[in-house]
Specification:
- The protein is an alpha/beta fold.
- 49% of the residues lie in helices and 10% in strands.
- It contains 19 helices and 10 strands.
- Strands 4, 5, 6, 7, 8 and 9 form a 6-stranded mixed sheet that branches. A two-stranded antiparallel sheet has the order 1-2.
- α2 packs parallel to α15, α3 packs across α17 and α11 crosses α15.
Length: 494
């Protein structure tokens, strides 16, 4: 049975009448252009120059003051919780957020006692998330062998359970945050990819043009206070825009994403169009801002914004194309919203290789409208540029911390099984989310003292982050005994 026409617009909360949709966008475009034009003479950070065919000149953001007291807070966290074992962090999070109940056997009956299963599940998750492997973890645990962990890994640990466990930890972190320390709840996240080395026989392994070397990409979605709400493993040539959309739609946590920060590679004209139709705002860091072009609602509007003449596009927006293809665009976006189509498959259809497709042309036209509105806001408000920069800094810190946790085998994904690769990725996400949860509680314990809180400055509150690792030991214990010797001499039989 075909879906009623009205349901497509209801699923996206978009107006059913195309004239209402177009008129609203046209007014937003006019307001954004006038805002940039009128503010340009008083904007010290942005200029429009006519040379080189016309371009923007944007002054780099000034460096913010260093937080004077933040290192002292980190030091106090380290003093109170020095040498915390990463495995103990995982155990604590299981007790508070309930990780292991999400892992169920594929079999109809479970004969293993739950406390024994809990122990083996946590050891498996630690071995997978650190990439040390089940053999190394079993070697350091009395009463648990490699075969025991291998059995639990095969029958209990799968992708859906790991995603549910990650969502539980993120939700627990969001619920545990104190607004007086972390601020009010956030509705934004940042997304970016990181390349990991992988075996050559891996079907996903490709040469990365952007990062160099062979490997796979893991695309992370990290909210402003460092909890990762979604992750996906992709080949190096896959669309970052598709991965960005997938994460926002499929994260399954209690976070409501209204803004998504991306780097320059994570945006495109169809990306701007789809995110608008899906109800969240795409906010990229534009490395090519100098060469951006502003599209006018009509060419007669140029008389109202003469200061922008050098950076205007040579034609205006083709509103007729957006009107003609409004319903097909909404249908494609609804398919993404309801999970009826994969973002990668949809966006592969709408590329420059298929430029004659009328819906693709309309998506590009809608993207030009939205990109122009965003560029005007991006240039007019320095706080928007700084907000995007700070959001992307969080995910860069997240990427750096994965090297600290995923240390086994040199950080290489050492399997050619596609499901096993995703399980390693999700276990890494679970360990790092657990670290963020526990660090959040540790920081709140320190800053719960009024003496410590009074010493914090605005710069210290801005820099506060639960992505700290100086007090964590991910490797285990190293005990030196100078009296202990290895028995290396050959024993002679009597």
């Amino acid at each position: 049975m075909s879906r009623p026409k009205e349901s497509y617009f209801q699923a996206l909360r978009q107006p059913q009448e195309v004239d209402t949709f177009v008129q609203g966008l046209e007014q937003q475009l006019k307001d954004a252009l006038v805002m940039l034009h009128d503010g340009l003479p008083k904007n010290p950070g942005v200029r429009v120059v006519a040379r080189d065919g016309g371009r923007f000149v944007v002054t780099p953001l000034t460096r913010q003051p260093d937080p004077p007291f933040y290192d002292t807070v980190k030091g106090e966290v380290g003093r109170q919780f020095w040498n915390t074992q990463l495995l103990d962090v995982l155990v604590e999070v299981d007790r508070r957020a309930g990780i292991t109940p999400h892992f169920k056997s594929f079999m109809t009956r479970e004969n293993m006692p739950r406390d024994q299963l809990q122990q083996r599940l946590l050891l498996c998750l630690y071995g997978l998330g650190t990439n040390t492997g089940l053999k190394r973890v079993a070697a350091g645990q009395d009463g648990v062998g490699y075969s025991d962990l291998k059995y639990v890994r095969r029958h209990y640990i799968h992708r859906d359970a790991l995603r549910a466990a990650n969502a539980a930890v993120v939700n627990a972190t969001l619920a545990a945050r104190r607004p007086d320390i972390w601020g009010e709840g956030t509705t934004s996240c940042a997304s970016d990819a990181k390349k990991y080395a992988a075996w050559d026989g891996n079907l996903r392994t490709q040469r990365s043009i952007r990062y160099g070397g062979d490997g796979v990409m893991i695309y992370w979605h990290v909210e402003r206070r460092a909890s990762c709400i979604y992750s996906s493993m992709k080949s190096c040539s896959s669309s970052e825009v598709a991965a960005m959309i997938e994460g926002v739609l499929r994260h399954c946590t209690s976070l409501s994403v209204e803004k998504n920060y991306v780097d320059t590679h994570g945006q495109s004209e169809p990306g701007f169009a789809f995110t608008h139709l899906l109800g969240f705002k795409l906010m990229p860091r534009l490395a090519d801002i100098a060469h951006q072009r502003l599209y006018l609602p009509n060419m007669a509007f140029a008389a109202q914004v003469p200061n922008l003449a050098a950076v205007q596009a040579q034609r205006s927006i083709r509103w007729d194309l957006i009107r003609q293809q409004y319903e097909p665009m909404v249908k494609y976006a609804t398919a993404l919203r309801l999970g009826l189509a994969d973002p990668e498959a949809i966006l592969q259809r709408f590329t420059r290789a298929n430029a004659q497709h009328p819906t693709y042309a309309a998506l590009c036209e809608l993207g030009k409208v939205l990109r122009t509105i965003f560029v005007c806001e991006y240039l007019h408000r320095e706080e928007v540029r700084r907000e995007i920069h700070e959001g992307l800094n969080v995910i860069e810190t997240w990427n750096g911390t994965t090297n600290f946790i995923f240390f086994g085998k040199g950080g290489e994904i050492s399997t050619n099984n596609l499901e096993a690769q995703e399980i390693s990725m999700l276990a890494l996400q679970l360990l790092q989310n657990s670290l963020v949860y526990v660090n959040t509680l540790m920081i709140q314990r320190v800053l719960g003292s009024e003496t410590w809180r009074q010493r914090m400055t605005a710069e210290d509150w801005r820099a506060l982050s639960p992505l700290m690792q100086h007090h964590i030991n991910p490797y285990g214990e190293f005990k030196l005994d100078l009296t202990r010797r290895l028995k290396l001499e050959v024993e002679v039989d009597a």
